[in-house]
Design goal:
Keywords: Coiled coil. By secondary structure, the protein is mostly helical. The protein folds into 4 domains: 108 residues, no CATH class; 75 residues, no CATH class; 67 residues, no CATH class; 76 residues. 75% of the residues lie in helices and 4% in strands. The protein is built from 12 helices and 4 strands; from the N terminus they run E-E-E-E-H-H-H-H-H-H-H-H-H-H-H-H. Strands 1-2-3-4 form a 4-stranded antiparallel beta sheet, covered by helices on one side.
């Protein structure tokens, strides 16, 4: 039995060859030849409906490129499909659809490449930011946009992925190192608070009420100047510290006696001499002897009469400044040693570079905190005089901390 696209021979159904394909057997006669032919014609009609359904899906969907592989698999399957009909127009139709989809995909990939290049530029602009919270959120949004953007041509894929990840990773590595530094500094600050509590205990046990009171005043100032630590670790120390100092003050108030008076010019001369001595210590290399001398000077300074000449303000500020330089240098040495285990083995020039780098980070942090304090001061106005005085002192203390660090930084950078 003959058919326009096949025939029956020896009880087997054949499909005539097309597109350089040989004739091939697609089935056998089951009941009779007519019903068998009808079965394979119906299969061809079902195939045409399947193709039309795929074309409709492509037309109606926005992401047309996602149908490419399905279309290719369907087209390739036509050469082995068991049905009777004209396969050539179907294959040609699918080839046109394939070319259409491949053109769309190529254009989309070119557009995706431009989008991803733009995202790389955005990430590059943020990689060195120190606004950790806001920048992290921005980069997460950029990364989400990157993931949602479709693929690019294979030849560009590795290069742009590397560029994008390098920019994002740079920021998050910097953030990691920053917070590791803060955690390390917090541990150092805890040690400072613990030492101040220890000094408060020793002062409380000191039988000399006046000397105990002088120590109490000093360590309270040092407490205020100490760095940040987690509140849950600071509070128990503060509870004990404040309790001890309150008892020291109460005892001093009960036993306070009048101090021997010095003439103003004698007091000024003594203060100037002590300031000059502290200045020399501030310019010297940090060592146990320097620290011991500075502490002795501070103790002697506390023994001076409480009432000082009006013209002594500048000398007092200088003494405080150079005292802080001495102990800031000590803190800087300890911080450098904690960051670099082999710090003591490095040559002097390298040590100075390391300390200068640490100082720049500390100055940057202090300047940000000062800016925040000033901003809060501008936004929060009050008529309470005590609050205004406290605020001015706080700002002044921040400025002095920055000046102290800049003084040390200048000294370091002038020597290497």
């Amino acid at each position: 039995m003959e058919h326009p696209y096949g025939y029956i021979k020896d009880n087997k159904v054949y499909l005539r060859g097309f597109l350089n394909q040989p004739d091939r057997v697609i089935g056998e006669v089951k009941e009779d030849e007519a019903s068998t032919i009808k079965y394979f014609e119906d299969r061809f009609e079902s195939l045409k409906e399947k193709i039309e359904a795929l074309k409709k899906d492509i037309e109606e969907n926005q992401n047309k490129g996602s149908f490419l592989m399905k279309l290719i698999h369907l087209k390739d399957s036509l050469l082995e499909y068991d049905a009777l009909g004209d396969f050539v127009p179907l294959i040609e139709d699918l080839e046109k659809q394939q070319a259409f989809l491949e053109d769309i995909i190529q254009k989309n990939r070119a557009r995706n490449l431009e989008i991803k290049k733009g995202l790389i530029l955005e990430a590059e602009a943020l990689k060195n930011s120190t606004d950790w919270k806001n920048t992290a959120e921005e980069l997460k949004n950029i990364k989400m946009r990157w993931i949602k953007t479709g693929p690019v041509e294979k030849e560009f894929e590795e290069e742009i992925e590397t560029q994008f990840n390098a920019a994002v990773d740079t920021f998050f590595e910097n953030r990691k190192h920053y917070f590791e530094g803060l955690a390390l500094q917090a541990e150092e600050n805890i040690k400072v608070y613990e030492d101040l509590v220890r000094q408060a205990r020793e002062a409380f046990d000191n039988p000399d009420a006046k000397k105990a009171f002088e120590i109490s005043k000093r360590i309270q100032k040092e407490w205020k100047a100490a760095g940040k630590v987690p509140a849950e670790r600071r509070q128990p120390l503060w509870d004990e510290f404040s309790k001890l100092n309150n008892r020291i003050f109460s005892r001093f108030r009960r036993t306070m006696q009048s101090e021997p008076q010095m003439k103003p010019w004698e007091l000024m001369k003594k203060m100037e001499s002590m300031t000059e001595e502290m200045k020399k210590l501030a310019k010297a290399e940090t060592n146990p002897e320097v620290i011991s001398s500075a502490k002795r000077l501070q103790a002697d300074w506390k023994k001076l009469p409480q009432r000082k000449p009006r013209e002594a303000n500048l000398v007092m500020r200088s003494f405080t400044f150079f005292s802080e330089v001495v102990f800031e240098k000590l803190f800087l040495d300890k911080l450098a040693q904690s960051k670099y285990q082999d710090f003591d083995k490095k040559d002097p020039a390298e040590k100075k570079k390391i300390k200068a780098s640490i100082l720049k980070d500390l100055i940057y942090r202090d300047e940000n905190e000062l800016a925040t304090v000033k901003e809060n001061a501008d936004n929060f106005r009050t008529n309470e005089e005590e609050f205004e005085i406290m605020l001015r002192r706080k700002i002044s203390a921040f400025k002095r901390k920055i000046d102290v660090k800049n003084f040390i930084l200048k000294e370091l950078t002038n020597k290497y």
